[in-house]
């Protein structure tokens, strides 16, 4: 949507509430914020049109489903101009759940979720290392996730 973003305090309250619990009904959220459910619906629609709200996600305990390995992968590219093609190839790997183009030591940084070390080895050795344009990688295995939260946004 073109034009200037025109968000107000209510928009931010809706965003914060939905980030905490995306399952809340528009009617219940309206009661919580002292507006009608219809107002919430209209505001959510506007936030979607602006591209601020991009759907909802279910938070799943991956360990409970048997995914015991989370790793972070620093990727060195042969040339930074290869980023787009390498990113497209990495997007095809279902175990990669997050990918960032970065400054610093690495050209790219990825988060990988696997059921076990054997699957991680397969992803790294048999899939990632064969992608044209990747010079080398450095892997960090997460021992524990201590914090995972959304940023608190404001109008300032």
From TrEMBL:
InterPro entries: AsnC-type_HTH_dom, Dimeric_a/b-barrel, Tscrpt_reg_AsnC-like, Tscrpt_reg_AsnC/Lrp_C, WH-like_DNA-bd_sf, WH_DNA-bd_sf. One of its GO terms (cellular component) is cytosol. This is AsnC family transcriptional regulator. GO terms for biological process: response to amino acid. Pfam families: AsnC_trans_reg, HTH_AsnC-type. Residues 7-68 form the HTH asnC-type domain. The keyword Cytoplasm does not apply. GO terms for molecular function: sequence-specific DNA binding. It comes from Dinghuibacter silviterrae. It comes from the Bacteria.
């Amino acid at each position: 949507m073109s034009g200037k973003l025109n968000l107000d305090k209510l928009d931010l309250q809706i965003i914060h509430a939905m980030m905490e619990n995306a399952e809340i009904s528009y009617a219940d959220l309206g009661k919580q914020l002292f507006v009608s459910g219809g107002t919430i619906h209209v505001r959510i629609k506007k936030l979607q049109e602006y591209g601020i709200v991009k759907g909802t996600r279910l938070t799943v305990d991956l360990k409970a489903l048997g995914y015991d390995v989370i790793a972070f992968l620093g990727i060195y590219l042969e040339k930074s101009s290869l980023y787009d093609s390498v990113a497209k190839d990495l997007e095809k790997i279902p175990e990669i759940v997050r990918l960032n183009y970065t400054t610093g030591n690495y050209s790219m940084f990825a988060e990988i979720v696997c059921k076990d070390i054997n699957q991680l080895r397969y992803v790294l050795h048999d899939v990632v290392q064969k992608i044209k344009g990747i010079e080398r990688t450095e892997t960090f295995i997460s021992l524990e996730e201590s914090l995972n939260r959304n940023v608190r946004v404001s109008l300032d």
